[in-house]
Amino acid sequence: MTDLIARPAHKPARPYFSSGPCAKPPGWSPEKLDTQVLGRSHRSKIGKTRLQYAIDLMREMLKLPDTHRIGIVPGSDTGAFEMAMWTMLGARPVTALAWESFGEGWVTDAVKQLKIDPTILRADYGQLPDLGAVDWSNDVLFTWNGTTSGVRVPNGDWIADDREGLSFADATSAVFAYDLPWDKIDVATFSWQKVLGGEGGHGVLILGPRAVERLENYTPAWPLPKVFRLVSKGKLAEGVFRGETINTPSMLAVEDAIFALEWAKSVGGADGLVARSNANAAALEKIVAARDWLGNLAADETIRSKTSVCLTVEGADEAFIKKMASLLEAEGAALDVAGYRDAPPGLRIWCGATVDTADVEALGPWLDWAYSSARA
User: Could you tell me what percent of the chain has a pLDDT over 90?
Assistant: First the structure.
């Protein structure tokens, strides 16, 4: 394509394709949030009730077994994953998998902050390391769905049933978008700002029984900040997993998450969310397949993300991608679609459940227009 094409007439109704914070659920407005808890203590009866309700909804939407605990913690997904690392690592050797920027962040924390010497399995953006090379006598850190690379693990089959170590899954772009095998996951973390389209600042920590056993029977060699402490007198601080948060949460953010979870329930729960993400990813794939200048950073479809889909643009450098993204934003056709700063230059389109498939479908002609305009 070399000729300048006409500006399309039809725009996505909701042009929100950011990969975090992501599109709010359809029908969302601040007036629809329950505000009776605002101005009240999170320790009050109503505060605890609403926090517990959010936890109960997450359990229901995730189809989480009773063996796993859910806690709301500070610091978004990053805080939740670092809490898990700082409280549980050091008991066994560690293997860290890195194929995008956040996985590399966990490697940095393990090496430079905790002074652990992990086995590191790396792959370039768009690829996965050899999952068959993982030694499950180790604790294993990995990202289920790489938000910045558009690469996911294909399933949980590579996680050993008889593992001696714990599986630590940064699942922030995966929960509510895939049917996760909870029997394979000892620790999972995420934030509301991804697939639920919630507000940032809060993380969610999910612990399986083997993780609880580790917490109650192992004390790290390093000091723990107060916001990381999950054990009291040798026992798990169960209150954290009943809505008694370690620090003061934003109850407005909690109500926003409750709205999203109730919306999720209205569209079919976990199955409905997965179906919406799949439909969005399929619609985007049709757009890519019809254009020889567009491609997928993850060439292997079996490991391609269904949420944060990363696209290559023929001949594009960082400046060209910024130009395309700026043109789309100025027209109100697509917002925040430039790829992550550390990733190869390209576009990144969020296809999670809070995006409507019709809006993804409307995106194709606008990508054509932006590409031709940037070239011109």
Answer: 97
345: left (phi over 0), alpha (psi -120 to 50) or beta: beta
Q: Is a pLDDT exceeding 60 seen at residue 312? A: yes
Distance from C-alpha of 255 to C-alpha of 252, rounded to nearest angstrom: 5
Could you tell me where the DSSP H helices lie in 28-90? 45-62, 76-88
pTM (2 decimals)? 0.96
Nearest to 334 by CA among 346, 345, 344, 348: 348
pLDDT of 3 strictly over 90: no
Confidence of residue 4 (pLDDT cuts 50, 70, 90): confident
For residue 3, what are the CA distances in angstroms to 6, 149, 374?
10, 31, 11
- Give the chain's end-to-end CA distance (angstroms, integer): 11
Cis status of the peptide bond prior to 15, with omega within 30 of 0: no
Where residue 338 falls (left for φ over 0; alpha for ψ -120 to 50; beta otherwise) is: beta
Q: Which of 282, 261, 259, 283 is nearest to 272 (CA)?
A: 261
Residue 1: the pLDDT is: 45
* CB-facing half-sphere around the CA of 74: CA atoms within 13 A: 12
Count, residues in the chain: 376
Alpha carbon distances (Å) from 339 to 298, 330, 348, 368: 13, 17, 5, 17
Calculate the average pLDDT of the chain.
96
Residue labelled with tokens 């008694």: 244
Q: Give the DSSP letter of residue 339.
A: P
